[in-house]
Amino acid sequence: MKFATKAIHAGQHADPTTGAVMTPIYQTSTYRQSSPGEHKGYEYSRGTNPTRKALEDCLAALENGKFGLAFSSGMAATDTVLRLLQPGDEVITGDDLYGGSYRIFTKVYEQYGIKFVFIDTSDLKALEDAVTDKTKLIWVETPTNPTLKLADIEAIGKIAKKYDILYVVDNTFASPYLQNPLDLGADIVMHSATKYLNGHSDVVMGALVLNDEALYKQLWFFYNAVGGTPGPQDAFLALRGLKTLHVRMKAHCENAARIAEFLKTHPKIEKIYWPGFTDHPGHDVAEKQMRDFGGMISVVLSDADLQETFRIASRFKVFTLAESLGGVESLINHPATMTHGSIPKEARERVGVVDNLLRISVGIEDVDDLIADLKQVLGD
Ligand SMILES: *Cc1c(COP(=O)(O)O)cnc(C)c1O
């Protein structure tokens, strides 16, 4: 089946008792057993719930994977992967990660004796040089947040295989519509389903998708033992969101391309990050592994200190100043104080998260209105 058909149908069947076409919200914590241990595959909703199962199967299909796991947040999904590690293990990861990933790595897992090595994942040599006999996990985000650096998923997969290291790709920014890391050698795809997958900014949820059954069983153990699993109402909403993923992503990409072109030559813009530009350092990798360039753009404002940046960020009428991304509505974010506030100033400035950087999540409103709003704030 092709992507659009899977987005609408995968994992879903008309309800056997009523014929309901939409997967019901199975708002139940427990399931009747006809005698002890005899049940229909569902015992207790921390571990299994039919609405969540439909979502997990749909997510797995969209990422070309065999197994899906849904979590109550992207961070809960990340936490579940990190539980596979032991004290003394090392993790190689990117130097401009999502702030919450940086925080769980350094503030939660370092205290249990796990070491995180931060490198530029667009630099394959730096990555291979960082491998030691203790390296157990490579964690890659691509495109990165917020400077949209590209990591070559397939090339990193070869390094991971060579040294027998578990390889995870955070695919939140691209979504499965634009790239499928499992096809390129990743062992696990991680998502903040809060973003493009759900797409309507009304649910916080995470996901993992993978092919290996033994690894799935290990992850399922922590998923159930720790319990960061979402309720059926949120699973229903995310499942509904997925039905339009392909339509939304196409519109996000088209609008972002128009806006990137508008901003590129604008006098108030000192620098723009968007992988669709041929002079973007990761453009060739993006062309190779992505089907389009996504809905995220970051800009550095010219001659703007923190105060001026705040003033500009607060004046939009159609764009909303808010954290998060990937919803139908356009958002502006100030990474240095919002999404990346938990990263020390020196560490974030080293990777370009300066005080006058703004990140734009381009929504699917009429692009003329979005450009008019940018003009209203920045001038023509
Ligand atoms: C938002 C985000 C996360 C964390 O997900 P939550 O759903 O907010 O817990 C992880 N990675 C990336 C790239 C994100 O944008």
Automatic annotation (TrEMBL):
A Gene Ontology BP annotation from the UniProt entry: transsulfuration
GO annotations of cellular component type: cytoplasm
Annotated InterPro entries: Cys/Met-Metab_PyrdxlP-dep_enz (IPR000277), Cys_met_metab_PP (IPR054542), PyrdxlP-dep_Trfase (IPR015424), PyrdxlP-dep_Trfase_major (IPR015421), PyrdxlP-dep_Trfase_small (IPR015422)
Location of N6-(pyridoxal phosphate)lysine modifications: 195
Keyword terms, alphabetized: Lyase, Pyridoxal phosphate
Cofactor(s) demanded: pyridoxal 5'-phosphate
Protein family per UniProt: Belongs to the trans-sulfuration enzymes family.
PANTHER family to which the protein is assigned, alphabetical: CYSTATHIONINE GAMMA-LYASE, TRANS-SULFURATION ENZYME FAMILY MEMBER
NCBIfam families xrefs: PRK07811.1
Record protein name field: Cystathionine gamma-lyase
Organism of origin: Sphingobacterium deserti
